[in-house]
Amino acid sequence: MKKILTTLSMALVAVAVLAQQPVITFEKTEHDFGKINEGDGRVSVQFQFTNEGMTPLVLSNVRASCGCTTPTWTKEPVEPGQTGSITVTYNPNGRPGRFQKTVTITSNASEPTKKVYIKGEVIPKTAKPVNKFTVKVGDFGMKTKTLDLGTITKGETKSGELEYANLSKETHTIALEPVPAHEYFIYQISLDTVKPEQIGKFMLAIDTKAPKLYGPVEEYAYVVFDNAKLDKSETYKLVVKADVVEDFSDMTLEEKQQAPIIETKGDYYVGAIAAGKVQKCNLQLKNTGVKPLEVRRAYTTAENITVKSTPKAIKSGKKANITIEINTKGLEPASYTREVMIISNDFEHARKKVTIHFDVE
User: Fold this and answer.
1) Residues of the chain with CATH 2.60.40.10
2) Which one, of 346, 359, 339, 348, lies nearest residue 267 by Cα?
3) Is the CB of residue 184 less than 8 Å from the CB of residue 178?
4) For residue 239, is pLDDT > 50?
5) What is the pLDDT of residue 7?
6) What distance in Å separates the CA atoms of residue 79 and residue 88, rounded to the nearest whole number?
7) For residue 333, what pLDDT is reported?
């Protein structure tokens, strides 16, 4: 009997203690912002609560589930019967799409941990068209400064566009100056006086009718603003690339039988060259076909090799040389391999690669 009375007494004490604790009650625990615009900035909602207990209520901590959500709250003790608030602010910048966040409240209430929730959907802000022009060219911007026209069949003209935008707050004039000014490089400017945030286009083309225009072509042009002096720095440099190929698809069977045939060694071994010296050597070609072999072009992308001369035409059964120059200046003693490409009117071997081997001593 005594044990029962003791247990009952403890229960009554616990009830009394609970009755004396603060009790936190919210008007609402969830808020839906609905659709909000990213460009409009932060949004906030206030969660009101009441202390329905018998002693002062103190919020010791209010914590959001991520850094994009910021809570502020009543710091002073909330007396019995009085109200307080928690303001929750959400930053939608850079966060398009739906969201749902939790805010956890810790206090001395009879229920020490409570949670409130916010949700909604962020509608992405519409970017200005000029924001896409991220490559700086003076006060202007471009998406790219390189136009690759790809493959062009010999005799045709192919064009493309490079857009530009005025990113400054002033009106500027814009011009284009090709260097060197080859006759096969064609350009037009859609807008040469450009107001702030206006967008224009360079229309660029390569006319491949020029007699010696075969293989890789790379043209340079420089952007000039407000009639200023030409600046050949990389900042203002535009590059136009193409690869000019000859079309042999219309050749008849007889033409193919009478066609020239290029014959050359695939590898040339030059031997040893003294460091810092320049040496010339000849790459021998032979025409084993019927009609004259025309060397359209011989070129290399290697810095240490220069093509010095090429034959105009090689008759059937005859030989001729392509002269190259190897400059070993700046090369360490070692074995080196370089490549020379030969473009001809041999329809089966229009591009012939020759590998040059040499040693620097």
Assistant:
1) 21-123, 129-245, 253-360
2) 339
3) no
4) yes
5) 52
6) 22
7) 95
Residue 191 dihedral angles phi and psi, to the nearest 5° = -145, 105
Q: Which tens digits make up the pLDDT trace of 56-78?
A: 999 999 999 989 999 999 999 99
Q: What percent of the chain has pLDDT over 70?
A: 95
CATH superfamily of 21-123: Immunoglobulins (2.60.40.10)
Predicted pLDDT at 6: 52
Rounded Cα–Cα distance for residues 313 and 358 (Å):
28
Residue 157's closest CA among 189, 185, 188, 176? 185
Q: How many angstroms separate the CA atoms of 273 and 6, rounded?
A: 109
Distance in Å from the first CA to the final CA of the chain: 112
Fold of 253-360: Immunoglobulin-like (2.60.40)
- pLDDT digits 0-9 by tens, 110-124: 999 999 999 999 999
What is the CATH number assigned to the segment(s) 129-245? 2.60.40.10
